[in-house]
Structure formats: structure tokens, C-alpha cells
Write a structure and sequence with these properties.
About 80% of the residues lie in helices and about 0% in strands. By secondary structure, it is mainly alpha-helical. Helix 4 crosses helix 5, helix 5 packs antiparallel against helix 7 and helix 8 runs antiparallel to helix 9. The longest helix is centred in the C-terminal third of the chain and has 29 residues.
Length: about 180
């Protein structure tokens, strides 16, 4: 058992500095652009977090403040996530109550949305992958995840692959028991 005080880690200046640096990096990309040497390599797309910063960059070019542009993109992703989950709950005849809304849009989603972090976009993409109906939507979500967090996309693909293998083994096992 660890005697470490985890609450001090959550409120530590290192964590604050991490989020502040992440925010500043995104703001700088949106405010100053991608540079003249921008090329479409995977490393560059990943480095500039193009799925998250490009919409904010376009908003800033039509006159919106770069910080507000990033927050707007983040908020749209958070609301898209809520919408996907609400649609799934309604399809299962589960009421979407205030408590359900708070659980879905609660502190974590609000926190990331207010900080204008790419995590809201990743949350939307993961939700789309697991409960979305559209195969093309799932493919786009996986592509966005590959660009924003390649290791997360790899973990999801690996997990889905193993789930597919084990569900096949279970169905074969169940079929042989019936015979």
C-alpha cells in the first residue's frame, strides 16, 4: 500500500504546468499558423494536432480570438459526445435525465472543454468508435485518433481485435456444446 499523497499530485504545479504548456502550444499554432515549411507527413500532422487545431485556425482567420476558437472546437466535441451518448441511451429506451447528463458531461468533460484541450476530441472519437452506428464515422474517428494519439488508437484496435477473436472462440465453444 502506497502512503503517497495523490491529492498533492492532482493539484501539483507540474500538472498545472503541463496543461498550461499544452494550451499555449495549441494557442500558438492557431494564432501564428503552421508555418511556411508545413508538409503533410504523419509526424507533422501529429505534431500540430491538425484535427483539433485546424478548425480553430480557420475560425481565427475569419476573426475569432484564437483562445475562443480552441474553446469552441473543444465545446463542440464535448456536445457531440453528449449527443452521441444521448442517442444511444434513447435507442435503448433509457431516459436521459439531469443525473445522466451530469454523469456524461460532468466534471471531466467540462474541465477539458474549458481548458480547450484535444482530449474532448479524443473522447468524441472514442465514443463514436464504440457506440456510433456509421462505419464511415468510425473510420474517420479512428483516423483522427491515429493522428492525435497513435498509441490510444493502437490500443483500441488491439482490444477490438482480441474481442473479435474471443467472441469467435466463445461462439464456436457454444456451438460445440449444443451439438
Amino acid at each position: 500500500i502506497s502512503t503517497r499523497d495523490w491529492s498533492s499530485d492532482v493539484c501539483s504545479s507540474d500538472l498545472w504546468s503541463f496543461y498550461q504548456n499544452d494550451q499555449y502550444f495549441h494557442w500558438k499554432l492557431v494564432a501564428q499558423g503552421y508555418g511556411q515549411d508545413f508538409n503533410l507527413t504523419f509526424d507533422r500532422l501529429n505534431f500540430v494536432r491538425i484535427p483539433f487545431t485546424a478548425p480553430a485556425f480557420l475560425l481565427s482567420k475569419v476573426g475569432f480570438d484564437p483562445t475562443l476558437s480552441l474553446k469552441f472546437v473543444s465545446l463542440c466535441c464535448a456536445l457531440g459526445n453528449i449527443s452521441l451518448i444521448e442517442r444511444e441511451l434513447r435507442a435503448r429506451d433509457i431516459r436521459f435525465t439531469i443525473l445522466t447528463f451530469w454523469l456524461v458531461a460532468g466534471p471531466i468533460s467540462s474541465f477539458f472543454s474549458l481548458l480547450a484541450l484535444r482530449e474532448t476530441m479524443m473522447l468524441l472519437c472514442v465514443t463514436q468508435l464504440f457506440i456510433g452506428k456509421s462505419q464511415s464515422g468510425k473510420a474517420v474517428s479512428l483516423l483522427i485518433l491515429v493522428i492525435l494519439r497513435p498509441h490510444l488508437a493502437a490500443a483500441i484496435v488491439f482490444g477490438q481485435f482480441w474481442g473479435w477473436i474471443f467472441s469467435g472462440l466463445r461462439s464456436e465453444e457454444h456451438t460445440s456444446e449444443l451439438q
